[in-house]
Specification:
The chain has about 110 residues and is of the alpha+beta class. It folds into two domains: about 25 residues, no CATH class; about 80 residues. It contains two helices and eight strands. β1 and β2 form a beta hairpin. The longest helix is centred in the C-terminal third of the chain and has 14 residues. The termini are far apart.
Length: about 110
């Protein structure tokens, strides 16, 4: 038996498996997988998870379009279908520069996997 619900902005399906309830998050919410890199000394490096998490957890933009971002690992995020990559890149660069994570001379590179 499955029950569809909405909770805290996440769609999920609650299924009963062998008498226990488990959650199966809707795979369409964060359907896009992106890589986030920056250049340092001529080398492309993955953005550390700490940076990505800082951006995703802090609502500094007041732009709800960035609510659908989920850091997964160094250099890897999952985002919703409505998140524009160019705006995400600009907002992340600005945040990373203000936090002094990213040198002012460096830029981010975002691409879909």
């Amino acid at each position: 038996m499955s029950v569809y619900s909405r909770h805290s902005g996440f769609s999920f399906v609650r299924e009963r498996v062998f008498g226990k309830s488990s959650l199966c998050f809707n795979q369409q919410m964060f359907a896009r997988k992106i890589r986030v890199e920056y250049e340092q000394n001529g080398k492309k490096l993955p953005c550390p998870l700490k940076w990505l998490d800082s951006f995703s957890m802090r609502n500094f933009t007041n732009a709800s379009v960035f609510d659908d971002t989920l850091p997964v690992s160094d250099g890897s995020m999952e985002i919703g279908s409505g998140v524009p990559l160019n705006q995400l890149k600009e907002a992340m660069e600005d945040w990373f520069w203000r936090k002094s994570y990213l040198p002012k001379t460096s830029h981010l590179m975002l691409g879909e996997d």
